[in-house]
Amino acid sequence: PDELRLAEGIALQAAVASENSRLYEGVKQQYAELQRTQAQLIQSTKLAAIGELAANIAHEINNPLTSVLGFASYLAEQVPHGQPMREELDLIQEEAGRARDIVRDLLHFSRQREFVPQVTDLNQVLEQTLVMVRRQGAFDSITLHEEYAEGLPPVEVDVPRIKQVFLNLINNAVYVMQERGGSLTLRSSFSGGMVRVEVADTGTGIAPEHLGRIFEPFFTTKPEVSGTGLGLSVSLGIVESHGGTIGVQSELGVGSTFTVKLPAKPGASVEDDPDA
Ligand SMILES: Nc1ncnc2c1ncn2[C@@H]1O[C@H](COP(=O)(O)OP(=O)(O)OP(=O)(O)O)[C@@H](O)[C@H]1O
Ligand SMILES: [Mg+2]
What we know:
binds adenosine-5'-triphosphate, alpha+beta, binds magnesium ion, Helix Hairpins, elongated, 2 domains, 276 residues, 5-stranded mixed β-sheet, two-stranded antiparallel ribbon
């Protein structure tokens, strides 16, 4: 009977040990999960803080800027072309206008506009975005390829925000092909429950050491006056708030492809689009 009790004791200890190791595995996994969530939280808190700061600054700068623009245009109207100081007054207007554009971008970055989800066809959103880009005369030296999948399932998105994302990606692509020309391909497809849009250029490509930083707010390789470095970070924020992702593949000197994936809403019916 003693031996039996001993055997029972050993069996119990073994069971406890195995239970302990199972629990330990669980704790380890939860700890890793916690660390991941914490890193994400720090990142999004940082972005939110930067957004708020940017919005405050932008708002404060907007008022004096409006006066500068207003008075400069008033004075320019008083001075005919070719007269002394007219050129300087035009320059003031031009530069203040540029400052206003940056301020507008910053206000956009703070994302204070109401979020209005709408069931929609992404192909249509792409086409509407292209209309805006064509108006800027951006495609003079660039060949455009549109490869839209037919019968794409709809998505439920805030249309102006998603347009902003495509616009940012297209503008970046156009910028890197401005001088040498090239081709821009917009491609849509559907796989794994996600509607996918690719924006591919044959521009400069992205240096490997920059690749990890391009989605950071204020990261830019553009000359000081032409880029704020907000396009991609704003776009990433918008796409993630829709439950989607943005990825990039790039080869230096060959070109870059940005891929936006948004969750499909199969079966939902596309709402009438007021913009269409
Ligand atoms: N299609 C692209 N080809 C090559 N580099 C790119 C491309 N898109 C983005 N980049 C790189 O990523 C950086 C960040 O892009 P992002 O759109 O965030 O800011 P930006 O274009 O520099 O300025 P902004 O969009 O605010 O005018 C760019 O400066 C550029 O270095
Ligand atoms: Mg940009």
